[in-house]
Specification:
alpha/beta, Rossmann fold, 5-stranded parallel beta sheet, 169 residues
Length: 169
């Protein structure tokens, strides 16, 4: 059970950031309390599309999401180990979440997801659709909004395995 004032830090991977960019909802990073979102520098470097990079930079400047670095010995050591089997951004997310006890927002599957479950547990992994469900529960968006976003996400190669957000609430 979470304490009312507890902050849950979430390390955010590029795929979730890009999904929220596509649906025009990067501002959710600043409004989904008790979550406080962080983007590793390595993930920011993976965002190569200029409009996406500009929008993420604006979210950082607005305080919706905070840039973070892999900068302590334990995280750097795990980052180096993980770099042998996954990309820099994914490795940075997992190293930070593991060594600092943070959650992860990522839609990655396969090797990353298996390793994340092993290192941080499935209960600390958030996917794009879970963030949208949280926004619905907090009355920040409607089910109809979320279903519209689902269509946009599907058009951008992120298919969700349900017909409507109403089905998973």
């Amino acid at each position: 059970m979470e304490l009312e004032n507890e902050v849950v830090v979430v390390i955010t991977d590029a795929n979730v950031i890009i999904n929220l960019f596509h649906i025009g909802q990067l501002s959710l990073f600043g409004s989904l309390k008790p979550y406080s979102f962080r983007i590793p520098s390595e993930v920011l470097a993976e965002i190569l599309e200029p409009a996406q990079y500009a929008a993420v930079s604006a979210s950082i400047e607005a305080g919706h999401i905070e840039e973070i670095s892999v900068d302590d010995i334990a995280a750097l050591s795990l980052f180096a180990e993980l770099r042998d089997v996954m990309g820099r951004g994914e490795a940075a997310c997992l190293a930070l979440a593991t060594t600092r006890g943070f959650h992860i927002a990522s839609d990655e599957k396969k090797r990353f997801r298996r390793r994340a479950i092993e290192l941080v547990s499935e209960s600390r992994i958030l996917r794009t659709e879970q963030l949208l469900v949280e926004a619905i529960r907090r009355n920040q968006i409607t089910v109809e909004d979320a279903d519209g976003y689902k269509a946009i996400l599907t058009a951008n190669n992120y298919a969700l395995p349900f017909a409507s957000f109403a089905d998973i609430l």
